[in-house]
Amino acid sequence: MKDGYLNKNQNFTNRSSCIFPILISDINDVNIVFLNYWHIKNNMRSILCNIRIHNEKGEQIKFFNLKVTDNYYNISIKTILGSENFFKGIANIEFISEENFGFTFPAVTAFYSSGSNFSGVHTAGRIKNTEESKIPGKIIETNWRCKWSQDITPFFTLFNGSIRGEKKYAKLRILDPNKELIAAKDIPIDLIEPFSNKFFFLDDFFDFNTLNLIDNTFVEVETPYTDFFPRMICGNFFKKESFLEVTHSFESQEDNPDYLIEVKKNDSENCRIPSINPIATTDDLNLKLLFFPTNCAGNAIGSWRSGDFGYPLINSKEKFEWICGGSKSKLKEIVIDNGNKIKALDICKGKIPTRINTNYIYSVANANTRYSTDIAAGQITEHFPPKRFTWGHGIIGKDYKTILFLTSFSHDKSTRVDANGKLTLYIGEYKFESKHIIPSGTGIKINLDNLIQGRIKSNKPQLISWYYSQDCRTKLIAYWISYTDSGKITGDHAY
Q: What pLDDT does residue 476 have?
């Protein structure tokens, strides 16, 4: 990870792309939302966006393009298709420029909707650029919260790249929280034609009634790849509502040893903390954290800080210790008491994996629903570069409210400074701005309804974009959560 951050300034690419699966019907749509951060942040001007829509067989059935000039975009796939007929496939989204993007992944969010219920997920899989290595291999994708019932099934999606493939199999494994195998099956992928793709619903392969599927039972998918990056859009499908509650998978790190150096005595002067997890919630939200046992073998020993938004956090007596990976590792769940609070999990000792993945499961307090977020995030390491700019999305209107959590937790003294910043929010043709201060070692909460103050009335949900810019670089991390009091909810970490 450290080398990856160090080498990012040497990256050069004129093409940035991503793949999203598509489910369209009279009640379902997929909206592609992105901020023109290339111009806002880096003053890039010559950017073209191409969207190619392929059916499950891989046939291209629609092509849409535009020159990126506006500050943000919200593109309906159903509108591009021009039909409400039932359709499954993929959207292959690419951005082309004469200038250097720096990253082959674009910051794009897809919102999957069923009526007025939305679930958003950022860029995951993509087809590689021509200059990239395309060595075939296999990968284990995992780490999403599975919901098992008669009317909800976990799902995942796969696609083929631009090269004609062969008939191959994916290995599915269902594991309990102790990482004990419950069931396994080899399933045919049959994605032979270029750009062919498929949704895989787990109840098509397993009879849930015959399995001991306790809470936090999870899935691993071992799948082959060639000229594409196979990160999966996955999650849970609510059958009656025809609703895709989405997140993305993450690669098992068990065979990828990469570690941080634990704190030594001589680190005390610099107040070094190798790994920090910023956590925030409110009275309206329940939150639990899932730590999947799929990291490289190691152990993490740490402690918690806690406090109010905008004020320094206080060390608590609460301790954290976990075997993060290897044969003895088990899934760890931590329930965060709801309330207007901010916390930090500081990991300083142990054989600390660089990647300790954490899923943020937010749900609406006092709402009798099974909806939740599944934000794939994790510990922020000391290798994470300080930054001035972050951005994301959300939903406003028809009972939706959006809150932003912005935090500044530094790993050493070098970036422990208070930072002045400005939030810019785009809703349709409207633009709103507000100024804020994020003190060092804490975070703030911004309720976008308070910023709008009733100046926009809408009888339908509106997808929004926002960015936050500071006057100096800090270890700035942000999350957005959009929800209704009745229990609909989605969210993600910011870019």
A: 97
The domain limits of the chain are 11-127, 137-251, 259-493
Same fold, 11-127 and 137-251: no
Could you tell me which residues come within 8 angstroms of residue 218 by beta carbon, excluding any fewer than 6 positions away? Answer: 142, 143, 144, 145, 146, 174, 175, 177, 292, 331
Cα–Cα distance measured from residue 249 to residue 218, given in angstroms and rounded to the nearest whole number: 11
Distance CA 144, CA 237 (A): 13
Measured in residues, the chain has a length of: 495
| Res 182: pLDDT | 98
- C-alpha 364/C-alpha 379 separation (Å) is 24
d(CA 172, CA 183): 8
pLDDT single digits (tens) 67-98: 999 999 999 999 999 998 999 999 999 999 99
In contact, 231 and 218? CB cutoff 8 Å: no
How much is the pTM? Answer: 0.96
What is the arithmetic mean of pLDDT over 422-428? 96
| pLDDT tens sequence across 215-231 | 999 999 999 999 999 99
Spatial separation of the C-alpha atoms in residues 229 and 303, rounded to whole Å:
36
Question: DSSP string of 258-288?
Answer: -EEPPP-GGGGGGT--SEEEEEEE-TTEEEE
- The end-to-end CA distance of the chain, in Å, is 17
31-64 burial, b if ≥16 CB within 10 A, otherwise e?
A: bbbbbbbbbbeeebeebebebbbbbbebeeebeb
Give the CATH number of domain 137-251: 2.60.120
pLDDT at 371 over 60: yes
Helices (H), 216-333: none
Given a contact cutoff of 8 angstroms between Cβ atoms, the answer to whether 291 and 356 are in contact is: yes
pLDDT exceeds cutoff 60 at 3: no
CATH topology of domain 11-127: Hypothetical Protein Tm1070; Chain: A (2.60.290)
Please name the amino acid found at residue 134.
K
What confidence tier does 459 reach under pLDDT thresholds 50, 70, 90? Answer: confident
Tokens 């009275």 sit at which residue? 283
